């Protein structure tokens, strides 16, 4: 069965990619939605290569020829005293662990642990005017949109408006808590944090997903660290299920 190892490995990795990208929305925990076709194509190609490799190995076995050993022998003849007879590098078997993890125990989306370590990476933005908000309250905003307007909008477009934010709970000092979202440009590896301090209701459990409705409370001077993080005085906090796409786009 050892000769079928490379084929099994290719099919296992392909199945893991297809499991998160084709048969579920789990891929959204790791990459942007626009990359789904490439993931599906990659998973299908790996699975196909595994089937082809298995078929070639089976045919070689029926013919009484071990194709992998024969190929290694030819290489050895052209390179002094190289006598490797492995069908594939042993290190390739390390791929079994992440592939099996994706199939059986997909890692969760990034949460409060990552958010707490990302504040120093927030990009500098300039104070200025922002487009008017849509009519009608409450107005739905992403956490990053609310933060940008609260900290940098010289037109104070949030003043007097009721807004609705969705994110996960992260704890702060002295009983403070935040509604937080992670923003990605390509994948989870480049995630940055946006968060809003919530005043009023008690904090739900850390990493709980919530939708918070409330009004903006100005703090500090626009564009300065004293204005960060922005504050929302909450009137309602509703617990929700984690969305299929947990990240905001940058």
Strand order of the largest sheet: 2-3-4-6-5
Q: What is the chain-wise order of helices and strands?
A: HHHHHEHEEEEEE
How helical, in percent, are the residues?
Answer: 25-40%
Please report the first level of CATH classification, the CATH class of the largest domain.
Mainly Beta
Major beta-sheet overview: 5 strands, mixed, barrel
Shape by Cα distribution = elongated
Indicate the proportion of strand residues: 15-25%
- For this structure, the CATH topology of the largest domain is OB fold (Dihydrolipoamide Acetyltransferase, E2P)
Poorly predicted tracts of residues: 70-87, 119-125
CATH superfamily name of the largest domain?
Nucleic acid-binding proteins
How large is the radius of gyration? 26 Å
Mean pLDDT: 79
Structural class: alpha/beta
List the total number of helices.
Answer: 6
Instruction: Give the CA-CA distance, first to last residue.
Output: 48 Å
CATH architectural designation of the largest domain: Beta Barrel
Number of strands: 7
Taken together, the total number of domains comes to: 2
How would you describe the overall organization of this protein?
- The chain is α/β, with parallel strands linked by helices and 250 residues long.
- The chain has 2 domains: 103 residues, no CATH class; 138 residues, Beta Barrel (OB fold (Dihydrolipoamide Acetyltransferase, E2P)).
- 32% of the residues lie in helices and 20% in strands.
- A 5-stranded mixed barrel has the order 2-3-4-6-5.
- α6 links the parallel β1 and β2.
- The protein is elongated and about 80 Å long.
- The two termini are 48 Å apart.
- InterPro entries: DUF1980, DUF1980_C.
- Keywords: Membrane, Transmembrane, Transmembrane helix.
